[in-house]
Amino acid sequence: MNIVVCVKVEPDLSMLSASDWQAAEQKGISYDFARWQLSGFDQSAADMALSLTDASLTLLTVGGEQTTPVLKTLLALDFQRAVRIDAGAEDLRFHPEAIAVLIAGFHHQDEKTGVIILGPQSSEGQNRQTGPLLAEMLGWPCITQVCDIRRAEDPTLLRVVRKTPEAVQTLTVRLPVVLVAGQAAQDRLLRIPTLKQKLAAARKPLDVLRAESLAKLPPVPVVTLALRNARRGAMIIEGGSPADKALTLYTGYLKSRGN
Amino acid sequence: MNIAIILDCRQRGFLSQAQMQNDFLRANPMLSGSAEMWLLYDADKPDVLPQMACDVRHIVWISLPENGLAEPALEALTALFDQRPAKLLLCASGEAADELATRLAYRIGGVSGTGVVKAERSETYWRVVRPAYGSRMWATRTLNGSSLCISVAATGGKTARTTPVHAQETDFSAPSAPAGWLVDFQQEPQLPDNGLHNASAVLVIGQGAGSAEQVRRLEAFARQIHAEPGCSRPVAMNAWCEMSRMLGISGVVAAPDVCIVAGASGAAALMAGIDRSEFIVAINTDPHAAIFAQADVGIVDDLDDVLSALAACYSCTSV
């Protein structure tokens, strides 16, 4: 079973200060100093794939050279190969169509992939569209809100568990299929490679493909950014003991609100 | 403008979903026009329907299997769109709605967006606004296309008012090609959710709680002050609190009347889940914590001391 796991390597946005975000409106977001990491939304997708033994696992990302250390760490797990698609100067953060076109182009290189697994979104673009768009482009079924995958007795089938607000569903599906990890699977963290695995990973291939060699990208949309202003400016309850402050909070604010 | 409001009545919370669509319509009065509701249901049509924030002139009922998979809904909605084209197709909020909006737009040759808070139409393009960068920013994207299919932003769990049906009703027979890829399907119903998303008061417990035992203690305080306990992402990831109680960008979005945030720094990812609260109280030992800029009232002190004293205030009143 050939599985491609599509991940996003992105900057740790929590390292940016309030002033960085304020400057972002005019100058764009600068995160030269930020740590690059696997998107938290992709950890469960990657770990689900690793739970299938005897599968051929390829890790795929679209990004620049700064993604390489993270990909090498991930290669130390049971991924056989990692591929980075380099889109050059194109900013594809808000362009899920382009990402889906590139993933589809990667698949069309050899048409051997049976399962493509993605996380639900990235932290930067928050597009939440790449998986469904990819399924439409490939003409494959798409299962979202996935929280687990298992082998079926028949090796041509896959058992997929998805969790919706209404039910936990177990689907036995024929391949190929696009799977999108669900928010409910977020407590599933990616395993950590051992030192031995890290040393062995040095021999695994990390291929770089040019985006234009895979597909012609659709026009990049115009995107403008504005700071989301959630300021309320709290009135601080000063003085006295914690009990005094709690009493002021209760009598002055909460009691009148019926709470 | 022709608007098709797509609502999945198979979902337990479809009235809350309708309210989020209403919130979008109220925030976008320029999109007013004649609207239809395209309602998905399985065995039985619901007894009540939501009152929508626009003039609904027609209701189309679409019977679907109860499995909730997108494929049958997509086939039906695509066929319905061919018969009743719309400029704006308004799906609800959440993962299922995101998928439906994206794939439906692809099939009808339209453009799409997810978690949209605003949409504007010019002669040749759409402009949509939605959160980005961990919900710290608003991203405005220009999309060239005739029909726009979107899922709306989550705005909390309040339910839409219900109303008798006055509009003309039609039953639409959906094409039903069997899904050859689906070999077997089993499902077990989930218990109703914990009520966090539509609670009138919420206590958000942050990492400042320090331990699972302390979170248990704070959850007990929450009950005493008539609030539903929730938590920030670090608390959930530490397994100090169950995942279903996590608030924020990837958890529950709530809009309670009162939201008390104790021991959380005020990260944007958390605030995305609570910033529609009517009144926010911040309790934190760090006077420089970002949460104070995003709250209405703040207390700089130990959260356990303050909350235990607050619980005592409620106990006195109860007596």
Low-confidence stretches of chain B: none
Largest beta-sheet characterization of chain A: 9 strands, mixed
What is the top-level CATH class of chain A? Answer: Alpha Beta
Topology pattern of chain A, helix = H, strand = E? EEHEHEHEHEHEEEEHEEEH
Oligomer: heterodimer
CATH overall fold name of chain A = Rossmann fold
Separation, N- and C-terminal Cα atoms of chain A? 56 Å
Detailed description of the structure:
The complex is a heterodimer of chains A (259) and B (319). Chain A is α/β, with parallel strands linked by helices and 259 residues long. Chain A contains seven helices and 13 strands. Chain A has a single domain, classed as HUPs (Rossmann fold). In chain A, α4 crosses α5. The longest helix of chain A is centred in the middle third of the chain and has 15 residues. Chain B folds into two domains: 170 residues, 3-Layer(aba) Sandwich (Rossmann fold), CATH 3.40.50; 123 residues, TPP-binding domain (Rossmann fold, 3-Layer(aba) Sandwich), CATH 3.40.50. Chain B has 319 residues and is of the alpha/beta class. Chain B starts with a strand and ends with a helix. In chain B, 26% of the residues lie in helices and 30% in strands. The model of chain B has no long low-confidence stretch (mean pLDDT 92). Chains A and B meet through α1, α5, β7, β9 and β12 of A and α3, β6, β8, β9 and β13 of B.
Give a quick precis of the structure:
Chain A contains 7 helices and 13 strands.
Which keywords apply here?
heterodimer, A: 259 residues, alpha/beta, Rossmann fold, 9-stranded mixed beta sheet, two-stranded antiparallel sheet, globular, B: alpha/beta, 2 domains, 5-stranded parallel beta sheet
What order do the helices and strands come in, and which of them pair?
The complex is a heterodimer of chains A (259) and B (319).
Chain A (H helix, E strand, L loop, with lengths): L1 E5 L2 E3 L6 H10 L8 E3 L4 H8 L5 E7 L5 H8 L5 E6 L9 H15 L4 E4 L11 H9 L3 E10 L5 E7 L3 E8 L2 E5 L13 H7 L4 E5 L12 E5 L7 E2 L5 H13 L5
Parallel strand pairs in A: 1-4, 1-6, 4-5, 5-11, 6-10, 7-10
Antiparallel strand pairs in A: 2-3, 7-8, 8-9
Chain B lengths: L2 E6 L5 H14 L7 E7 L7 E2 L5 E8 L6 H14 L4 E4 L3 H14 L2 E6 L1 E4 L3 E8 L4 E8 L3 E5 L9 E2 L4 E5 L9 E8 L11 E5 L6 H13 L3 E4 L1 H5 L20 E5 L5 H7 L4 E6 L12 E4 L2 H16 L1
Parallel strand pairs in B: 1-2, 1-5, 2-4, 4-12, 5-10, 6-10, 14-15, 14-16, 16-17, 17-18
Antiparallel strand pairs in B: 3-11, 7-8, 8-9
